[in-house]
Amino acid sequence: MNVTQIERRIIEAEMLERVYAELRRTMDDEAALEAVANIAERAGREGGESFAASAPHGPSLAHFKTVVDIWRAGGALDIVVDTDEPDEFSFRVTRCGYVDAYRRLGLPEELCRTISCNRDGPFAEAYDPRLILERPCTIATGAEACRFRFLWNE
Question: Which of 129, 108, 115, 94 is nearest to 9 (CA)?
Fold first, then answer.
């Protein structure tokens, strides 16, 4: 069964919402959110490692750029590329279907931010230590767009 990234994330979000609710019954809200954040970050790292392993000639910025097609499959993201150079790739996400879907599911705002945005940094770090992510703002935190800047540091 071929599932798009957004379909997979929606399934995960429904389960993580249940986990978060249960954790909040047994611990304070901050600790419950931190536990879910740790799960999302671990998933991000594992995804980055897996994607790096799929690089035919080893990790590179050229290969990394192809992940954007996976992220936006199924109409999940609207992206405007700002810079596409051999050592820099930056873009703006002007519509995030992931956050839209989480909000339609009725997830608490703190959970929307946590299960989606917390994956990005660990994904990049695990892909390759030469890849640096700068992401100063996200739609999930109230910005008009998510700004991503990836630098390849040889």
Answer: 115
Three-state SS sequence of the chain: CCCCHHHHHHHHHHHHHHHHHHHHHHCCHHHHHHHHHHHHHHHHHHHHHHHHHCCCCCCCHHHHCCHHHHHHHHHCEEEEEEEEECCEEEEEEEEEHHHHHHHHCCCCHHHHHHHHHCCHHHHHHHHCCCEEEECCCCHHHCCCCEEEEEEECC
- Please give the Cα distance from 92 to 146 (Å, whole number): 5
Q: 51-84 pLDDT, tens per residue?
A: 999 999 999 999 999 999 999 999 999 999 999 9
Q: What local confidence, expressed as pLDDT, does residue 2 receive?
A: 86
Residue 89's contacts (CB-CB under 8 Å, 6 or more residues apart) are 61, 64, 65, 81, 83, 149, 150
Give pTM, 2 decimals. Answer: 0.93
